[in-house]
Amino acid sequence: MKNDEAKNSYESLIYEFRGWLNEDGNEVYVDEGQQEKDLEKLAVAEEWLEDEGSEAGYKEYQTRHYNLSSDYNKYKNRQEGFKEREQLVPSIFEGLAKWKNEIDDLTESKPWITEDEKTDVLSKISEMNTWLAEKVDEQAGRKLSEDAVFTAKEVESKFKPLDKLYKKVTNKKKPKEKKPKKEKKEEKKCEDEEFEYSKKDEKKGEDEEFDGRYSKTEKEEEPESAEDESKKEEQNNEEENKEEENKDENFKTEQL
């Protein structure tokens, strides 16, 4: 079962590779003079498969499949790489030119984008444009049957950081307006002064109220002077003398 699968896979590769080589336009991706050799090699492989190879083992099929597919994949990669570059490169050049023209308008409508940020984006756009133009010129000097100077993946890899930078700068949001720190300090100072004045007025009122109560109590509890005490004592003595005299008169009257 395993041998049959490997044999069928090898046979399918022979037919597919031959069909690709015979397709119009694909000869430009094949090394010069190599197309006829490859077709001959495929004919030999097919003959072997129908003869002694019909009873070959799994490893034999696998080895022959690997060797044949190496050449086939090399040609197909050249073809696919060329088509990818032809599709990607013009769109990159177009995008770079569009960004370069738009960056001035964007910085005018968004004045918070700094001049340094604008300069950085324009510099990266110029670098990318120069690099890609040089690669395209170098590739134009080579045949499609030769290995490519650059690939679409390389272009995408180099373009990605620029794309990220452009979006970061152009999508920059307007910063929130902040009150000057000096004004905040002045407001805090006024609040503190008002609070201190309020506390002082409150304390002053409490002190005045306490002084009033204390002054009243002192007046109520003020002791009598020495002169007042002497007068009071004389008055008491006079009253006692009068009482004694009244008692004597009453006694005399009773005797009579």
3D architecture notes:
The chain has 256 residues and is mainly alpha-helical. The protein folds into 2 domains: 2-170, no CATH class; 182-217. Helix content is 80%, strand content 0%. It is built from 7 helices and no strands. The protein has helices at 2-22, 34-50, 58-109, 115-140, 152-170, 181-220, 226-255. α1 packs across α3 and α3 (58-109) runs parallel beside α5. The longest helix has 52 residues, at 58-109.
Summarize the structure.
This protein has 256 residues and is an all-alpha fold.
* Helix percentage: over 70%
The chain-level structural class is mainly alpha
- Roughly how many Å is the radius of gyration? 58 Å
Q: What is the CA–CA distance across the termini?
A: 176 Å
Tell me the quaternary state: single chain
Question: Beta-strand percentage?
Answer: under 5%
Provide the succession of SSEs. HHHHHHH
Number of strands: 0
Major sheet summary line: none
- The shape is elongated
Number of domains: 2
Mean pLDDT: 83
Total helices: the number is 7
Low-confidence stretches: 216-222
